[in-house]
Amino acid sequence: MHLFLLLLFPLTLAIWLRKQEGSLPAHLFNAFLGIFLAAVFCAYKYFFSPFYFITPDSFWRNLLHVFAEQIFLPLAVLTAAFLFVFKKDKLSDRLEKIFPFYAGFYAVYLPFRVMNEALPHAAFSLFAKPIMYALMILTLSELQKILFVPAKRALLSAWEAAARWSSLVVALIMPAAVEALWLLGMRPFLTILFLLLYSASSALAFFRKTR
């Protein structure tokens, strides 16, 4: 039951690496750096600041909690740290190498979060949640290459820029929104529907390239 959760991010990273040209040692180094930081963070949480959250009967409070704890704060800190550590490289080069860093971190952090939930672990946590987070970091890493690089962003029309920023916001918020609904007892078929819609929107954002 836990194999999918444990293997999805390593397999996603392996597929991503196969499509890259060169720089394999750098990509692997970034992945192991992400794994190391996740291990340190999880150890700190386990011993000094254990996860404890009473699920409220409120969509917005659940959304805010999940988004802040599992998406915004980790990704904001990770991105800032990664861009600072490799600040001697060009910004575009750093963003080309950031996906393995994200994947390495969530390969450890997400299973740790799920396995600290009350037993038995739900199908949502074991299957739907890891899929959404894998799609999230794929979409984020792709959109960053365009939106965070001024030279590439300048090539976009106002409509194209708005569409990509909107895609970025949806990519980051949707996993937390779906989980917030699930915590309130959302029916399984709605979970599957949201997962399919999110997969479709992520694929659209991921495959749209700047000219």
What does the secondary structure layout of this molecule look like, with pairings?
Blueprint: H1 3-18, H2 24-48, H3 59-85, H4 91-96, H5 98-115, H6 123-147, H7 150-153, H8 158-183, H9 188-207
Brief summary:
By secondary structure, the protein is mainly alpha-helical. It has nine helices and no strands. 31% of the residues are buried.
Q: What is the helix/strand order? A: HHHHHHHHH
Number of helical regions: 9
Return Rg in Å: 17 Å
User: Which geometry do the CA atoms define?
Assistant: globular
Beginning-to-end CA distance, first to last residue: 43 Å
- The unreliable regions are none
Mean pLDDT: 88
Main beta-sheet annotation = none
The amount of beta strand, in percent, is under 5%
The counted number of beta strands is 0
Helix-residue proportion: over 70%
What features would you describe in this structure?
- With 211 residues, the chain is mainly alpha-helical.
- The protein is 79% helix and 0% strand.
- It is built from nine helices and no strands.
- It has helices spanning 3-18, 24-48, 59-85, 91-96, 98-115, 123-147, 150-153, 158-183, 188-207.
